[in-house]
Specification:
CATH superfamily: Hotdog Thioesterase
CATH topology: Thiol Ester Dehydrase, Chain A
Order of helices and strands: EHHEEEEH
Shape: elongated
Number of strands: 5
Structural class: alpha+beta
Distance between the termini: 14 Å
Strand order of the largest sheet: 1-3-4-5-2
Number of domains: 1
Number of helices: 3
């Protein structure tokens, strides 16, 4: 996976809480997917004034089609981590993103996620032009 430039990267800080960890105080592996979901949601919310909320209200959504995860080092209870999210590709009804969880600049977990856009009927749908244009700012 390629390192993102600062200009094209959305950064979401996340505190590791007790509920995120196992008995040893280490983040449970599946919770990194939750961290990535929160970060993607924040990135989408930041696209423009209410655009993402309007699309959700209209029944449009993104669903994960594929996720590849590489675990390098664990985060622990009370760590402050950052999820760096970068869009790699935008298609008509899909997008690919790279998400890296870091602690003090150290790469802990790296994910490559492919998302599909669906309409109110739950079937694949083309992204509205304004959404695609807004997402492309992260390329």
């Amino acid at each position: 996976m390629v390192e993102a430039s600062a200009a094209a990267t959305h950064i979401t800080p996340i505190r590791v809480y007790y509920e995120d960890t196992d008995a040893a105080g280490i983040v449970y592996y599946a919770n990194y997917l939750n961290f990535a979901e929160r970060a993607r949601t924040e990135m989408m919310r930041d696209l423009s004034d209410g655009l993402y909320a309007r699309l959700l209200a209209d029944g449009m959504a993104f669903v994960v089609r594929r996720c590849v995860v590489d675990y390098a080092s664990p985060a622990k209870l009370d760590d402050l981590v950052e999820v760096h999210s970068r869009v790699l590709h935008v298609g008509g009804a899909s997008l690919s993103a790279e998400q890296t969880v870091r602690r003090d600049g150290e790469r802990l977990v790296e994910m490559e996620v492919k998302l599909g856009c669906i309409g109110p009927d739950g079937k694949p749908a083309r992204m509205p032009v304004e959404l695609r244009a807004a997402i492309e700012k992260y390329l």
